[in-house]
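Section handout 9: paired folding examples.
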Amino acid sequence: MIQLHRVWKVYRVGPVRVTALADVSFSIEKGEFTVLAGPSGSGKTTLLRLLYRDDLPTEGEIQVAGYEVTSLRRSKIPQLRRAVGVVFQDAKLLPARSVYENVAFVLRVLGAPRREITPRVMQTLKAVGLSAKAQALPAQLSLGEQQRAALARALVKEPALLLADEPTGNLDEAISEEILDLLKEIWNRGTTILLATHRATLADQLKRRTIVLDGGRLLEDEP
């Protein structure tokens, strides 16, 4: 599902070269639930951005869901992103649109038939426990509900891979537990998950394979 081979990412900030990722290699098989751990600034978000082609590596090779990301034609990027769902630390919902519209927007962009949109959106909202809040605006939701809506938006296109970048970072412990339980349910349905977190306790709690980054380098890969 994911393969990285000797991936480097170096940014230029004026005359200074900043290395965000240094010679990172690993693979994740279809159906795995993997934790990407490391402190803030360790390169986790940079790595995720490379996986869904929001940026390109300076060196190295990346394959995601059967796509050679580093050499992918611009016209093929939407196809890659149909196969990959992304959830961020802040939900990034459209504030002036209802929960329903935030989720339906993805299907409209993908060109889904109109008759399919409402059933798929409502089915996905039901799966994340938000069917009763379909017409609510993001500001009317709790932080936990906003994150559930973000998950629904990522899942409605039925991605093979879900990338979650600190999805519990802004949540208290109880709500974090709810989001983690929901991620486990999604994984049990067959979705491959890569969850990035700076919280070592969360990685220990999940008891899943953990890839540890520190200073842009792969420090550990624990089964």
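Moving on to protein 2 of 2.
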Amino acid sequence: MRTLQLSRLDHCSVIITDIAKARSFYRDVLGLREIPKPKTFDFVALWFQLDDGQTIHLLQKPQADPRSPRHFALRVADAQAARKHFRACGIDILETGPIPHCDRFFVMDPDGNRIEIIQWLQPYDPATSGATALD
């Protein structure tokens, strides 16, 4: 019996060290809208909202997280246009392995946080695109 009903990802939190650089990247390069953080917060945090109401929370800490394959993904309508946009902004593109029916790549924010940019050409279908067994 399923008792917990999860509906969607609400937000993702990312560690940053430089407020100005992070704000510029998430607002000006990614084009996200900054919204006020909760007034009860007594620490430095920037909140950015996507069109569907999901948010990305940037939490200031003295040191960035260690570099790793950890990431979050942002969906785009046109991955090729997104590549051109990032290149025009001077952001390096990191190509990656294929997933059936999608075009994707990675970029890094100023603190080295990995962000996947993904365009689904067809909805993901585990029956045709998935592994034959679960890990």
